[in-house]
Amino acid sequence: MIQCDCLIIGSGPAGLGAAFSLLEQKPQLKIILLESLPISCGGLRNDCKMNFTFPVGFPLEYWTKQSAKPYLERIENFLNPHILQKDNLEKYTRRSEKIGVQLLNIRQSHLGTDGGIRLIKELTSKLTEMGVELSFGETLLSANEKEHRAITDKREIQYKHLIVAPGRHGFDFLRKFMEQLNIQYKDNSIDVGIRLETKKEHYPIVEDYYDPKFLFPERTRTFCTNSGSAHVVQEKYTSSKGETYYSVNGHAFSNAKEPNGLVNFAVLRSVSFTEPIASGQDYAEYLGALAMHTGGGNPIMQRIGDFRMRIRSTRESLNQDLYDFEPTLKSATPGDIALAMPSKFLDSIWRALKKLDTIIPGLLHPSTIMYYPEIKLYANKPVFKDDYFMSAEDIYLIGDGAGTSRGITGAWASGMRAADGILRKIDV
Q1: Phi/psi class of residue 112: alpha, beta or left (left: φ > 0; alpha: ψ in -120 to 50)?
Q2: What is the pLDDT tens value at each position of the chain, 428 positions in all?
Q3: Is 57 exposed, middle or buried (0-12, 13-18, 19+ CB in 10 A)?
Q4: How many Å apart are CA 302 and CA 196, to the nearest integer?
Q5: Phi, psi for 374 (deg, rounded to 5)
Q6: Are 382 and 171 in contact (CB under 8 A)?
Q7: Which CATH architecture has domain 2-83+112-186+380-427?
Q8: What pTM was estimated for this model as a whole?
Q9: What is the Cα–Cα distance from 223 to 247, expressed in whole angstroms?
């Protein structure tokens, strides 16, 4: 049986942060990093926007400004990011404050999808040079807490410490893993929203602030803005019942790519369920299935002009008169979002959009497209035994899938924090 000091599940920023932090202090450690997909995944591959200002990416139930600050500094020293300049925010801030909206001033870096892929290759190559065994296309099946033994679809591994960082896509995997080990957790929060796509001239703030973060009443916010060479994409999810549904997302390439003059961003509404809903994940999967049923197996898109007139969009109505740009997610089905999206979410989002159109006039141009669904699963909240995200003996659960982060830097920080917990035990 293969033995290692630390077995890490997941090659996203949480897993990478843990691996580099361990080796920085103990370069002699034997580390195995497993990834179920054939390539490294996570937020670094998806547009690669990084935020270096608390609390963006740091859930407040696990982090304070004081606890996050040293980790943000360590991440910035390690990655040495180029922080984007922001200009002319005074007018947007002033307009926001007048109508009860908050515009966060965040230190950001943006590599683009192509730049993120290059960074992943650099990081994984560096880990290999440092002696880490990287195994792609290998899936963890189970773990024995008492015996410190993990079983994958290829082998058995004896570990001293196990870090599980499956990310958002591994939400259901993590839920089943916790149930197998009798780790208590809460699964009651989800983010549901839409992604807008419009011409850059209708959202000119991106000239001054790449990913503007607006916070609205009713736990509604903007999320993940992309401009330049920007595209809306669909991501495949598999439900706990084995059914497929798609959630939309946004990508943008680096400045080296030819710009297409478009902007896309999400507007999300957060909900935390109480009795009698037992699982936010199950509810999210239901919404995903309903959207697929309504859209004929694909996400739905609708023009703002049609939505305002309470009519569905059709292929024929997407003409060159008002609809003066091609949708980048061509597989989306023109339809009526209101048929698939619960009013609790849709009404809050529409109120937020009207406020945003007051701050940035022109956003709600009739040609602007709304895509649905964009669903973020942040609901797994394990019960931790210490401040380092240990949920069972020498088993640490970290990253977006475990609810300890919401983004690249938060996930990287949660990996570093778990590594700090392991190093404390090694040094005892």
Answers
A1: left
A2: 899 999 999 999 999 999 999 999 999 999 999 999 888 877 788 788 999 999 999 999 999 999 999 999 999 999 999 999 999 899 999 999 999 999 999 999 999 888 899 999 999 999 999 999 999 999 999 999 999 999 999 999 999 999 999 887 777 789 889 999 999 988 778 899 999 999 999 999 999 999 999 999 999 999 999 998 999 999 998 887 888 999 999 999 877 678 899 999 999 999 888 778 768 888 989 999 999 999 999 999 999 999 999 999 998 888 777 788 999 999 999 999 999 999 999 999 999 999 999 999 999 999 999 999 999 876 578 999 999 999 999 999 999 989 899 899 999 999 999 999 999 998 75
A3: buried
A4: 10
A5: -120, 110
A6: no
A7: 3-Layer(bba) Sandwich (3.50)
A8: 0.89
A9: 14
Q: Using H for helix, E for strand and C for coil, what is the string for the chain?
A: CEEEEEEEECCCHHHHHHHHHHHHHCCCCCEEEEECCCCCCCHHHCCCEEECCCCCCCCCCCCCHHHHHHHHHHHHHHHCCCCCCCCCCHHHHHHHHHCCCEEECCCEEECHHHHHHHHHHHHHHHHHHCCCEEEECCCEEEEECCCCEEEECCCEEEEEEEEECCCHHHHHHHHHHHHHCCCCEEECEEEEEEEEEEEHHHCHHHHCCCCCEEEECCCEEEEEEEEEEEEEEEEEEECCCCCEEEEEEEEEECCCCCCCCEEEEEEEEEEECCCCCCCHHHHHHHHHHHHHHHCCCCCEEEEHHHHHCCCCCCCCCCCCCCCCCCCCCCCCEECCHHHCCCHHHHHHHHHHHHHHHHHCCCCCCCCCEEEEEEEEECCEEECCCCCCCEEECCEEECCHHHCCCCCHHHHHHHHHHHHHHHHHHHHC
Number of Cβ within a 10 Å radius of residue 149: 17
Query: Six-digit token pair at 39?
Result: 């390539």
Written as one letter, the residue type at 220 is T
Nearest partner of 294 among 194, 233, 372, 191, judged by Cα: 372
What are the tokens at 111? 């590599």
The domain ranges of the chain are 2-83+112-186+380-427, 189-377
Residue type, 312: R
The amino acid that residue 300 corresponds to is: I
